[in-house]
Amino acid sequence: MGEIGGFEVRHKDLLGRIGSLETKSGSLETPHMFPVVNPSVQPVPPREIREIGFNALMTNAYILKKNFREEALSKGIHEFLGFDGIVATDSGAYQALVYGKVDASPEEIVKFQEAIGTDIGVILDVPTGYEEDRERAEWTVEETLRRAESSLKVLDRIDVLWMGPVQGGVHLDLVKFCAEEMGKKPFHVYAIGSPTQIMENYLFDKLVDMVLTAKMNLPLNKPLHLFGAGHPFMFALAVACGCDLFDSAAYAIFARKGKYLTGEGTFSLEEMEYFPCSCGVCSTYSPKEIRALEKPEREGLLARHNLNVCLEEIKRVKQAIVDGRLWELLEARARAHPSLLGALRKFSEYKLFLEKHSPAVKRKGIFFFGFEGLSRPEIVRHKVRLKENYVRPEGSKVLVLLPAPKEKPFHKSPGVARILAGVGRGPSVHLCFYATPFGLVPMELSDVYPLSQTEAAPLDKESLEASMEEASAFILKQKYPKVLLVRPMDEGFSALERMCAKSCVKAGSELKVLRAKEAWGERTLKRVVKAIKGLIASGSGGASFG
Amino acid sequence: MGEIGGFEVRHKDLLGRIGSLETKSGSLETPHMFPVVNPSVQPVPPREIREIGFNALMTNAYILKKNFREEALSKGIHEFLGFDGIVATDSGAYQALVYGKVDASPEEIVKFQEAIGTDIGVILDVPTGYEEDRERAEWTVEETLRRAESSLKVLDRIDVLWMGPVQGGVHLDLVKFCAEEMGKKPFHVYAIGSPTQIMENYLFDKLVDMVLTAKMNLPLNKPLHLFGAGHPFMFALAVACGCDLFDSAAYAIFARKGKYLTGEGTFSLEEMEYFPCSCGVCSTYSPKEIRALEKPEREGLLARHNLNVCLEEIKRVKQAIVDGRLWELLEARARAHPSLLGALRKFSEYKLFLEKHSPAVKRKGIFFFGFEGLSRPEIVRHKVRLKENYVRPEGSKVLVLLPAPKEKPFHKSPGVARILAGVGRGPSVHLCFYATPFGLVPMELSDVYPLSQTEAAPLDKESLEASMEEASAFILKQKYPKVLLVRPMDEGFSALERMCAKSCVKAGSELKVLRAKEAWGERTLKRVVKAIKGLIASGSGGASFG
Fold it and tell me: Which of A23, A206, A336, B529 is least surrounded by CB atoms within 10 angstroms?
């Protein structure tokens, strides 16, 4: 075990991380969801939560202090709960948000958490909530920062980890300010405050803004916690945005209302005939059988299923991180609700940040489903490099723009070999491919990961247009003396021709266009070779062909 | 229990059906996947398959006849397998496809199936496979039809159900012919032959063509079986295309290769650190623990997991049918592989057939994620009705085309109330909304299902263009004397304006366009009222306003 408070990252994908956070009660693997245990009412005993597979839970220090003070102090929180794993304690800030004031000072709350021996504590901050009023929102941020300062001052134990919540709500400049300030203070874990109402109202696009704004302004070497995130259909999204930890009572709250959670959304027990799950509960009972039970038993079984499915989804997210397939999981989960797809589309605003912090090479190829995927790091990275660092091969004079051949990597296509055999393998002629989703692929890069490891669905308009823009920007930037564009007849490629023509005019390049029914057909290849030779011959004299 | 061979449908969605097929060994609920049991090698004993939750399996009559003839005849197939559920038997046609000829006549094979007491038998047909050669493909169809005829003639038992396979492969006209001819013969179940290679190569768009071509030409009151479909990520697709039954040995074949099935795709046990599943196997063992086991045990556990996940997916599909949410499940599953998304896009070619056979009203609203969704029955139905049956209200003279308000149903929007209060609720003015994904919604229809029960993600270009086309087609068809188009400033709506202008010219309608920053803002509403009054005043005289 490492030093208490240490956080080691083992795997990354997008901003998601498999890491371990060291606490005095053991190592906590991220991403993790703390099931929230209400000390007063609890449908699943903490011991059973542990048996299901959660080695860390969260409970509420404020409720403990109010209703179970002496017992919690004398037994300590682990014995009090009958849970020998890791215990995190929340501070009552959420209760303050919902019920107005709480009757304890911020300093009392942190001292109490120390006294009961929590593993990970939270200061009593002031949640901004979904507060529209700017002035009130500003005050919550300032007061949260003041309380962070005063709370840290009274701490004595060095074996307890502390969370510093970032407030500001939907006011992103306040989130940024609060993250910067909070990031300067010595917390072990940072946290996104105030998302509850935003999540309850399915405003997942706003959540992406909040989380990423905080993430971009916090120390990246510390874990980030998202308060109140408990529906499995959003775990992949939250993890991709950089949340390492969650806590939620959703499993219990939904169970109380007869709701059944899944990675694809929420079902009402009332309306179910089949359980789409293989967990212990769902393979033992039918929906009808559970409906027939008394309320406490029914609720307990639903809560157990809900916990099982949360754990399953966390494992699904982890395996996706290991495989470098978190984006693919996001695409699937974005079809659980239109607002999750809206959130995924928000990634386009943060794509450079995502690219910067995602691994460059993965062990698997990528799947491309549609224009949302243009924000994924692998594609952004190729485009950025092409734009910023790429220099065309020395001596290249004729750019030949070809549609992507069927074979991968492109340079191994028989059609490409035919063209090269026809014109000779000299430096003058440079073959490039316009290929979604990457836009433009110079032949010599065509086996660089993941250009040949990508499988794409038939194209949508947005993706096609983006690719055409890449190709024409490339012409503009690289300024070849001559350009040969080989394009299919289809009307859809007229736009490409127009865009290339415009770029050629601006770049001072001579353009020849060759329209073909079958772009890689025998006849076309002959025409391509002839056209290239023609361009060379009409050329600026001294071109040499090997 | 109903009559043997009877098929009753209880729930429908798209072409998917929850129904029950009566056999002599009990009732079989569809959709169902028969796990295929190889009498020679079997990683999970039939008794355990039953315990997992499958009450019907399939085995191979040809292999039985060849290797276990006497024992199978004396014990009967149920006792031979130690399985007291429903047993279907395949005929060896697949073996003929793979190994060339089989050494039994079609008549011998069906008589043997009768003799061992199978519940559902298959005639020995000739699979077309993924045969490119037209002549050979034609022969397989003709020979299959001849064998169907001769096999049916030798049958004695009336308590055995028979499957009639439809051949033709990728030659869709042959599939159509074969389906028509096979459909005239008295089979209890029809089946799609030859899809194995197509599925192995992930040519799911071709599969959609094959299945739907067969489906459209077969009796719809009989169940349809898809041979060899065993990967859970494609169950939703196959069921949506109208397949009621599947059989597959994939759970065992994949297990033998160390492959782990999920609804999101295939994993290699080698590469797994986490099991994204809550089944008995996956909640007991970690991937590392299973890797450490001896091969037979490892294979058995993987096969059990694979069976669990197949059953889970079948239950997921069933619940989706009950909820009328099969399309939403298709959208999610289409992100398991680009070729599945390609297959979903194929539905646009069959959308009228899908519409005709899908239920009109559902208990839940629909989610719209992108242009693929334009093929779903609810949307197609609205557009067809608007085009074919809709007549504008009597006396309507001014069409007011408004963007969709935030509130649903649209006619309850305060903005709409303001407009109506301003111009009076007479018959002359007809408010309509252009709203994706439905295109155009006349106010009086705005609470008809599912126009107000739809949640849509932010729009993609294809969907937006489709909506604009609907709106301009409506103008052309309904020929109002005057049209007021209220549109947002955004450049994206210029196309709408152009299209409406063209339609107005053709329809002889006077067009006024009102561009607004906030289409439902206070100021805009006043301008709209003024514009409507202006159009009325400039009008053709006798208009009366109540």
Answer: B529
